[in-house]
């Protein structure tokens, strides 16, 4: 689809191939387009492949894949999942306001456009990614709630950006939550992603400083015998029923309409970002059947416990020989289904993370949960409230940081992200 803004070079036979940057293209490890999440289906923390099997790319051509910076929507939303990601929040420096923010977004947009084309960041490029092509690099920019007060633009702050409510499962670290500005970086090569991260950080200069940074990963294509839904860090097949761009109501659920309010958010979206730690030591003590009861799906195939294949809709009324529900009343697959949440849905596009061993001696690993929706009050919030009240999976996860960001539509050629807001 055009909205994915992605194209692949047709000829990768050599460094001079048409449509490819001046860098020599090499084979890279990339993503299947399957995100890793906290398991389930429908509107919960399930994550689906953002690309169809026929779109899978051979390992030898991944470096040539290019995503376009300019377009109706920003890249990194409907773009197929990448193998490596960084999410970073910045706070404007003391004394920096609207003028400095506009100059920063102009610099960031110009750098992102060059890097996504496989070109050097600028005259002082670090050469970290010299030998790689674009590798499906995307750079996405958003604004936090606090940004508008810092820049005198409170009247332009969307109502949908009101702070998220408190949830029972929250154990939030304020230092790793929120922020004035948010940047998401994804690529199918780790050095390409890191190169973009350093360029964005350097471009911030004296206008903004890093508030927090998180790093994640996804499965690389070619790691399985055939394209398939990924397994998350809990070992579950994860991501069967994510909304797809081909769905009739996809744009309505994910993007702010062109006639939406405020005007500068037309064709944009709202990103909820949560660091969800998986309590793997506790999870791994459960037997396979107990894990399946928590999720409501077979661990081997991802099929619902009520029968069928991975894509079969769970039969939530089916009972076993003893009269008990086959899919338990508190199973994640049951609670997270759109029809159990008033039709609420969101596009989940996260990264897994592993940050070593925590101070308490447990594994510090889990999910950098990123979901996209036209309105978080009708997307993320109702689903999380439902999960908060009785999801069996809640015992094995912990929400440790949180942020909500307004992500405007894509920049026009010659313009920059957020221009309508900052110059309107």
Automatic annotation (TrEMBL):
Superkingdom, taxonomy of origin: Bacteria
Domain Dyp-type peroxidase N-terminal: 74-218
Catalytic reaction list: heme b + 2 H(+) = protoporphyrin IX + Fe(2+)
This protein's UniProt keywords: Heme, Iron, Lyase, Metal-binding, Oxidoreductase, Peroxidase, Signal
Pfam families per record: Dyp_perox_C (PF20628), Dyp_perox_N (PF04261)
Domain Dyp-type peroxidase C-terminal residues, every copy: 229-411
Coiled coil: none
Compartments it resides in: Cell envelope
Any Gene Ontology biological process: iron import into cell
Record bears the keyword Heme: yes
NCBIfam families: Dyp_perox_fam, tat_substr_1
Name of the featured protein: Deferrochelatase
Organism the protein comes from: Streptomyces xanthii
């Amino acid at each position: 689809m055009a909205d994915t803004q992605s194209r692949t070079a047709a000829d990768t036979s050599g460094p001079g191939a048409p449509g490819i940057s001046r860098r020599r293209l090499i084979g890279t490890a990339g993503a299947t387009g399957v995100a890793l999440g906290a398991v389930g289906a429908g509107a919960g923390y399930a994550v689906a492949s953002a690309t169809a099997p026929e779109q899978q790319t051979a390992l030898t051509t991944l470096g040539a894949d290019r995503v376009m910076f300019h377009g109706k929507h920003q890249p990194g939303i409907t773009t197929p999942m990448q193998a490596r990601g960084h999410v970073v929040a910045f706070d404007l420096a003391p004394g920096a306001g609207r003028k400095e923010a506009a100059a920063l977004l102009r610099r960031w947009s110009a750098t992102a456009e060059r890097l996504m084309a496989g070109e050097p960041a600028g005259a002082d490029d670090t050469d970290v990614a010299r030998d790689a092509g674009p590798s499906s690099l995307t750079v996405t920019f958003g604004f936090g709630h606090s940004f508008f007060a810092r820049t005198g633009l409170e009247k332009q702050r969307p109502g949908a950006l009101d702070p998220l409510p408190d949830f029972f499962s929250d154990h939030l670290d304020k230092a790793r939550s929120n922020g004035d500005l948010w940047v998401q970086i994804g690529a199918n090569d780790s050095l390409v992603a890191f190169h973009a991260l350093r360029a964005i950080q350097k471009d911030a200069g004296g206008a903004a400083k890093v508030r927090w940074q998180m790093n994640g990963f996804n499965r690389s294509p070619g790691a399985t015998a055939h394209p398939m839904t990924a397994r998350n860090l809990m070992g579950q097949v994860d991501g069967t029923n994510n909304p797809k761009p081909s769905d009739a109501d996809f744009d309505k659920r994910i993007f702010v309409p062109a006639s939406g309010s405020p005007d500068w958010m037309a064709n944009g979206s709202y990103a909820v970002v949560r660091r969800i730690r998986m309590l793997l030591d506790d999870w791994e003590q459960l037997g396979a059947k107990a894990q399946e009861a928590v999720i409501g799906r077979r661990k081997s195939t991802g099929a619902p416990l009520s029968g069928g294949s991975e894509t079969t809709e769970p039969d939530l009324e089916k009972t076993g020989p003893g009269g008990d529900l086959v899919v338990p009343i508190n199973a994640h697959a049951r609670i997270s289904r759109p029809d159990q949440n008033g039709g609420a849905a969101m596009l989940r596009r996260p990264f897994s993370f592993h940050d070593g061993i925590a101070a308490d001696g447990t594994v510090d690993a889990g999910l950098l949960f990123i979901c996209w929706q036209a309105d978080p009050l009708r997307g993320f919030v109702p689903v999380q409230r439902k999960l908060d009240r009785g999801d069996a999976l809640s015992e094995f996860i912990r929400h440790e940081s949180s942020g909500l960001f307004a992500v405007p539509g894509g920049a026009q050629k010659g313009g920059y992200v957020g221009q309508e807001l900052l110059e309107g």
